[in-house]
């Protein structure tokens, strides 16, 4: 993402301190934390086994053209292991007097400490993390005067920090499911042992900008629309995701009102 504070090495520790991988014993995976990540059900594992073997073959160096198996956040019984269920169970809430939860509450403004030289959020000793989702997160800062100055002025909001980046440069990794009844045939994309056939070694070098993948296809051996009820009908989903979208958008205030 271009932010050094959010690079792989910094986030890796947060990730391993959060999760327990049910199926993988790898250095970069968590071993004993509450958030569970597993694989698809037995049925899906059987269908995917030849593909996951190929994925393991490629996964160690993640070249620009590759197959990789992905996990899903479920427990042993295929129930969702959401961050909400894992980190906010009622016994934990009772044991954390410094954690306040306000249900059915909309955050409208960030209140700053008046009179301090450095801009500080009122009551915060260190950092404040705003996580209202990709589209809604820019709203409270803009209503509080952090955002593009011209835009804030238009809505009568006094600028505290001019920052054009708030609400800007948003990209959508568009993803669309194609659900088909399929029969797989070998093609020249895969060799006889299931490895992907590149044009040449340099095609696999991910450090070259021209090799950054344009597309990701997630193969799901069930219907990605109707759920796993169709497991016997040979239905397969190709979830196609554009990895380098050209369209860039922004979100701005419609009114200086927290509900718009
Ligand atoms: C259809 C769909 C399928 C997906 N499937 C997967 C998947 O299989 N695996 C995966 O890893 N990811 C998946 N994702 C992506 C994943 O859901 C998001 O990346 C993730 O939820 C983002 O988390 P977040 O906490 O940043 O934001 P969110 O989950 O969007 O949470 C933001 C919260 O803030 C609240 N909020 C907003 N404004 C305010 C305000 N002013 N005051 C108070 N509260 C506010 C919102 O109501 C919301 O509850 C999927 C997303 C979609 C839409």
TrEMBL record:
Q: Where are the transmembrane segments?
A: none
Q: What is this protein called?
A: GMC oxidoreductase
Q: Which Pfam families match?
A: GMC_oxred_N (PF00732)
Organism of provenance: Sphaerobolus stellatus (strain SS14)
Coiled-coil region(s) at which residues?
none
Family indicated by similarity: Belongs to the GMC oxidoreductase family.
Task: Please spell out the taxonomic lineage of the organism that makes this protein.
Answer: Eukaryota, Fungi, Dikarya, Basidiomycota, Agaricomycotina
What InterPro entries does the record point to? FAD/NAD-bd_sf (IPR036188), GMC_OxRdtase (IPR012132), GMC_OxRdtase_N (IPR000172)
Q: Where is the Glucose-methanol-choline oxidoreductase N-terminal domain?
A: 2-170
A Gene Ontology molecular-function term? oxidoreductase activity, acting on CH-OH group of donors
